[in-house]
Amino acid sequence: MTTLDPAPIAPTLDVHLSDVDLRNALEHDVRTGLTADPKRLPPVYFYDDRGSRLFDEITRLPEYYPTRSERWILDTHAKDMAYLSDADTLVELGAGTCEKSRVLLDAMQATGRLARYIPLDVSDTTLWAAATALAEDYPGLVVSAVVGDFHRHLDQLPTGGCRLFAFLGGTIGNLDPAQRKRFLVDLDCVMDAGDRLLIGTDLVKDRGRLVDAYDDAAGVTAEFNRNVLHVLNRELGADFDPSQFEHVAKWNEDDQRIEMWLRAMSDQSVRMVDLDLDISFASGEEMLTEISTKFTPDALEAELEECGFVIDSMWASEGDEFLMTLCHPHC
Question: What's the whole-number mean pLDDT along residues 127-136?
Answer without folding.
Answer: 93
